[in-house]
Specification:
about 675 residues; alpha/beta; six-stranded parallel sheet; 24 helices
Length: about 675
């Protein structure tokens, strides 16, 4: 038997470090065994994806990082959570849906967030965490903080486009980030040769301009030395590094027992290489620990886990009253039938207090003010630098004024853009991301819908995403075609957690955007391309905010209420002017904010006119008009003189041909005709 000094010299690792690694592996193993026993015996029930065989990866890394360092992991990452320091009582309570879970029982086992330990996000979307990790690393870099970020994912995630977009962006920005591929050699149910022709994954990093390293995670001393060097390099600011940590998943994709994806011989070989018993034997053989000492570590881990499970089983389940809490910062925002909070408008600057400007200039001014006021505000998007200041010039001059760190040009990679914004927002920054066309939301919907919108709820408000996404909306301009002209607000409005604005004037574009940037929830501002240069009006100098959820009466009337937003406000006002000549008095309500929605001003107006028409540029079928019409019918059915009308675009892609486009989207003349139909109803 060697002395501890001899063992340390041979392994090049301090004996105390190896013991601590084993202690963490023992805790992870105790968690794994207890969950599998509890699920098998019917003691409790929750979704579980075993990480048996992968224990050494986070256990080793735990000795090289601190709680200040950020971690992102995946739904299989309970071992990552344990080693990062998430309290076990809170972890089990969360998995069992208990109110005292780390996320109030709202995220559950696949969505753990614990910022106190640096565990910032767990995603159940394969590969979805990599773009967000970029944002965490970016925030640390912009703040010159001594933090690194580690994003964990399995080998299967290497096939996901989000990972490739994230790697490319991290390479361009030289982020302090480790892409840690825990290569357990099985992507869910498919071994590696079944889904890629790549010989390895680490070599892919070279294509993105940074280093890739392959390490044997089953050899704990060697893995420790490899990771120590990598973490030191990243901490020194030498850019991102991709680590392929080779291991083997011994359990199934989900549930309990052994994996069925390996032959009996391969499974036996994997168990012989399993780092938990392997390191245990090595500690004894090298005289670092005795059998008794390791047994005491194992027993302490078992007792800690048993106590955590007992606590969780006795804890109170998350009550039903929590259903609408943590969706937004304000619990009154989620719409509920018959529950319509009245949001009073604050005093807005009056006419004559500002200079006439185009909407694009008002948007630029809002961003300028936000950048000036708060060092946590930064812009990111394709081509937003100088020149040209964005394809529509809404950021013109801002990069020159604030520099490329705060006005950040990105690759053409919408998923990477939104993910970086989410990650930075998770740690208190206020990113403003530009998506060039509303249509392009389709390539980053996962980041918007499954991460930005849901993070507050899934984390029980442990974290939230105060970011703003600006999207330009085509239609009515002619020549952009079917993939650049859609009004897709219904996609966004159907997603709890998002706030959505749609200004119709330069005044509103500036005031709403400033409100969005400094809001505590993820906001999407939709900006009509037709209005960017086509709407000219006063916008006061300096900072002013238009409260979200407050509509505006653009024109008073007595015969019918037209409810609309965006560039359709101008068309509806023109229709009202035409109808006034016929003695028809039209009241026009500009919603300005679609979520939260100002039901009170809509309902108060319709109570007066007793008729209503909802107008929007989006397709009429399944459009937002149906939601508003239904609510008005439910609340005011007995007072209406006619059914509430809806008027939207034809159910067809937006045509490239200008003659078709201008006829398939509501225009002043067609809106006037539709109003006459509602008025004529008997």
């Amino acid at each position: 038997m060697q002395s501890q000094a001899q063992a340390a010299a041979r392994l090049d690792v301090e004996p105390a470090v190896l013991v601590n690694i084993y202690r963490q592996m023992s805790r992870i193993r105790a968690v794994d065994k207890a969950i599998q026993a509890g699920l098998s015996g019917g003691k409790f029930l929750f979704s579980y994806w075993p990480m048996t065989g992968q224990e050494s990866i986070p256990a080793t890394i735990s000795q090289l990082i601190s709680k200040r360092d950020y971690m992102v992991t995946t739904y299989r990452g309970i071992h990552d959570q344990v080693a990062k320091g998430v309290p076990l009582a809170g972890l089990f309570s969360e998995a069992l849906g208990r109110f005292d879970g780390v996320n109030k029982g709202k995220g559950g086992s696949p969505h753990i967030s614990d910022p106190s330990s640096g565990s910032m996000l767990t995603t159940a979307i394969v590969g979805g965490g990599a773009p967000i990790a970029n944002g965490l690393a970016l925030a640390a870099k912009m703040r010159t903080e001594d933090r690194i970020t580690i994003v964990n994912f399995g080998d299967g995630a290497t096939s996901i486009g989000a990972v490739h977009e994230a790697m490319n962006l991290a390479g361009v920005w030289k982020l302090p980030l480790i892409f840690l591929c825990q290569n357990n050699q099985i992507g869910e149910y498919t071994p590696i040769p079944g889904y890629t022709a790549s010989k390895d994954f680490a070599s892919r990093a070279a294509g993105y301009g940074f280093k890739g390293v392959k390490l044997d995670a089953n050899d704990v001393p060697a893995f420790y030395q490899g990771m120590k060097k990598i973490i030191e390099e990243v901490r020194r600011g030498e850019g991102p590094i991709f680590v392929e940590a080779l291991t083997m998943r011994l359990g199934p994709h989900a549930g309990v027992g052994d994996t069925k994806e390996l032959s009996r011989e391969a499974l036996q070989a994997a168990k012989e290489a399993w780092p938990v018993p392997r390191l245990r034997a090595q500690l004894i053989e090298d005289g670092i620990s005795t059998e008794q000492q390791l047994a005491e570590i194992d027993e302490a881990a078992r007792q800690e886990v048993d106590a955590a499970i007992a606590h969780a089983l006795a804890a109170t389940p998350t009550p039903r009253e929590e259903t609408l809490i943590d969706v937004y910062a304000d619990p009154s925002v989620p719409p509920r039938r018959g529950h319509y909070p009245r949001r009073e408008a604050e005093a807005e600057p009056g006419s004559g207090t500002g200079k006439p400007m185009l909407m694009l200039d008002a948007i630029r001014e809002a961003q300028d003010l936000a950048l000036e006021q708060d060092a946590g505000v930064f812009l990111l998007g394709e081509d937003i630098g100088d020149p040209p200041g964005g394809v529509f010039a809404t950021s013109r001059g801002l990069q020159t004024k604030y520099g490329p760190e705060r006005v950040r040009v990105t690759p053409i990679a919408e998923t990477a853009i939104i993910g970086a914004g989410i990650g930075a927002a998770l740690v208190g920054m206020r990113p403003v991301a530009e998506i060039m066309f509303n249509d392009f939301a389709g390539v980053c919907l996962d980041q918007i819908f499954n991460h930005a919108a849901k993070q507050r709820y899934m984390s029980g408000s442990a974290t939230h995403v105060p970011m703003t996404i600006r999207m330009m909306v085509g239609g009515g301009t002619g020549g952009y075609g079917a993939q650049h002209s859609q009004s897709l607000e219904a996609w966004l409005l159907h997603t709890p957690g998002l706030k959505v604005t749609f200004p119709s004037t330069p005044f509103d574009a500036k005031g709403l955007l400033l409100s969005c940037i400094f809001d505590e929830d993820p906001c999407v501002q939709l900006e009509s391309i037709r209005l960017l240069r086509g709407a000219r009006g006063e916008a006061p100098a300096g900072d002013y905010r238009i409260p979200l959820g407050v509509a505006k009466v653009r024109r008073e009337g007595s015969d019918i209420t037209v409810v609309t937003y965006g560039w359709q406000v101008q068309e509806s006002l023109a229709a009202a002017e035409e109808l006034a000549k016929e003695g028809i008095s039209v009241e026009v309500i500009d919603l300005r904010t679609l979520v939260p929605l100002d039901y009170h001003r809509v309902l108060d107006s319709v109570k007066k006119t007793r008729r209503a028409l909802v107008v929007h540029a989006a397709t009429e079928f399944c459009g937002f008009g149906g939601e508003i019409a239904s609510t008005v019918h439910e609340e005011l059915f007995s007072t209406l003189k006619a059914p509430v009308g809806r008027f939207g675009a034809d159910f067809a892609p937006i045509a490239y041909c200008r003659d078709i486009e201008l006829n398939q989207i509501p225009q002043a003349k067609s809106i006037a005709a539709r109003i006459r139909e509602v008025i004529a109803f008997k």
